[in-house]
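Researcher: We're reviewing a set of sequences before deciding which ones to prioritize for further study. For each one, I'd like a predicted 3D structure that I can look through quickly. This is SDR family mycofactocin-dependent oxidoreductase. If possible, include the structure in token form so it fits the rest of the review sheet.
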Amino acid sequence: MGKLDNKVAVVSGAARGQGRSHAVNLAAEGASIIALDICADLEGNTYPLARPEDLDETARLVEKEAVRCHTAIVDVRERSAVWKAIEDGVGELGHIDIVVANAGICAMGTGQTLQSWSDTIDTDLVGVFNVIQASLPHVNDGASIIATGSLAAQLGSATNQGPGGSAYSLAKQIVARYVNDLSVQLAKRMIRVNAVHPTNVNTDMLHNEGMYKVFRPDLKSPTREEAEASFPAMQAMPVPYIEPQDVSNAVVFLASDDSRYITGIQLRVDAGGFVKAKPWKG
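Model: Here's the predicted structure for SDR family mycofactocin-dependent oxidoreductase, in token form for your review sheet.
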């Protein structure tokens, strides 16, 4: 018996990283999965994104948990495409009980352009809107909606990090406000709406040259080892980053009845990154 037996979850950005981890962990608790991912690169992003074979591997790992997985290669920036992908998933799996709007990019370092701003806003903000809004006609009463934010949303703007970094911070801040306000609108149906805000996570979004240069601007071409020496500066706890599993633990909690009266919260999984950066305001 799992905490999510007979439930269906939509997960965007499911081909790898946090999205794959969320999909597999939800499946391990009994949920069937509608897994969405673009499986292609974006012009304005500064590191490679997932590929179709990555999404296939997510499906294999989900189905290994003895549940079903409907996959769709879809760009979350495209409203009509997202609506169709989710309708197709519901046509196969029947309904939606959990929505995890997770797909995101973070274009940092050299190579950023104005397209980096547009692609980031359209993926990290519009993409969250599209996935959640497309799911709303299908969600059951008592459902759980979870958006992936970021510690960056809690720390304020990042206009000194180029168009990609600035857009990332802005998008995540608005996602936090969206979750807050939507939770009130859906509360009468016992539908919960929450956000998780991770610090650095051990995924491809963190491990790329652009991000390494953010942490080691003193070096022309920092290696992973050189960048990791600076990663712990983000957190109060002496760790360079957290693992996708650490975020998935929070996602499963928010998806399950263990959190049945928790809605509208901004759940930081940040190893103390926020409390280190922001003084207490009583």
